[in-house]
Amino acid sequence: MAAFEYRQALEIRDTLSRYGVRYLFIGKSGAILLGFPDTTQDADLFVEKTSTNGRALATALVDLGFALTAGEAQDIERGRDFVQLKNGPFDLDLVFAPDGIERFEDAWARRVDVEGFPVCHPDDIIASKVAANRVKDRESLPRLQAFRDYWKARHRA
Amino acid sequence: MLVGVGDLPPREWIEEFEAAARRSLETRFRYAFIHTYKPVLDDAPYRAFDSTSAYRDWCEANLPSWLGYGRV
Questions:
Q1: Residue A41 is nearest to which of B35, B47, B55, comparing CB atoms?
Q2: Nearest to A129, CA basis, from A99, A97, A93
Q3: What is the ipTM, given to two decimal places?
């Protein structure tokens, strides 16, 4: 599996938009879209958990080249809380219920648009990492929090 | 690096943020997304969990601790 590329991000953005999927980039991939200089391996999408949205997403993923079985497509339609895809052109995590964020609608209202990419607000990215409380998140949080403060100051100006 | 509440972030971080802000999104992508093999995690093409908590439990039970997916 090669690294996730910019052109693939554009394909996600354009294909999910075409199918009307409601989602947000979250996690470190979201932070990178916001300008956080760091490295990561995959893209994480926070997806609105409705059957209509899940069905649209499953169709869009097949269009993007993911080899979903009927059962896997059903999992996505149902919105199983965490789906990890390594059966497509890039690695993708679908998160229907991220730690630390109560409702998709709230995160959607706070979203940031980055060249057409819908991205979680940095406060939400940090809230999810704090709540997940993983070793790797704890290590990166101080720098991510400093970036959040920098980003807010820059966007106030 | 540990930074306490109320501490100013290291100057080098701010310089990195400013440098990143000057790059195009495409360039930021090229620098940010890498791929290295992660044992166990990369060995199945598909996984799904009924709760994020179940996924975290699975990570703790199955992944090497050095990957950092365990909870603190």
A1: B35
A2: A99
A3: 0.91
